[in-house]
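Running co-folding for 2-keto 3 deoxy 6 phospho gluconate.
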Amino acid sequence: MQRKDEALLAILEGQPVMPVLKIDRLADAVPLAQALVRGGLPAIEITLRTPDAIDAIRLVSEEVPDAIVGAGTILTARDFSQAVSAGARFIVSPGITQELLDAASMSEVPFLPGAATPSEVMAAREEGYRLLKFFPAEQAGGAPFLKALASPLATIRFCPTGGVSPKNVGDYLSLPNVICVGGSWVAPDKEIAAGNWAAIEELARQARALKG
Ligand SMILES: O=C(O)C(=O)C[C@H](O)[C@H](O)COP(=O)(O)O
């Protein structure tokens, strides 16, 4: 296994839930990351879905040393390199494209590409990937779909993301081919907007206690 795969495995194995974050106000980034670290979820995915996302990755990387900051919603090689320059320690995409595969192969930073069908999983496998995001998890078939992949595609482990919630998270975490899940429920927009970091810390603590 390559060194960067080992690094990604350690990050994903470290906690049952990866918070998927949308930062609307740069000033929220550091206190949000600190709350998640306090709650036991140091690995976080800051999505490039808002104009301040790259600055948020940079700020959290610099100011919250205990956080393990990844970048999500990476769609292009340019996104990839900007996120890495800002300090991202892992890169997540909703899908897999040749442009991103090329960018990933030239980078020391590990890449978690997304897949939602057996053919996409097999294409990623041919490129040497064993850890994949399953996106959009609930919409693409949920836990029963992933369970059905476990026998034919036994070497692949997934981080399902999209529609995962406290209601269904146990179904995913009980599967042998799920390494962790991604979800936004631990950092709701409403609590971020209100600066309710204690509530987010508590949501993180509850997520941290989930069993894989
Ligand atoms: O932008 C990306 O790359 C994503 O991964 C999107 C995520 O799936 C959602 O941000 C999380 O989905 P929910 O937990 O259903 O809110």
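Result summary
The domain at 3-207 is CATH 3.20.20.70 (TIM Barrel).
The longest strand covers residues 17-21.
Job closed.
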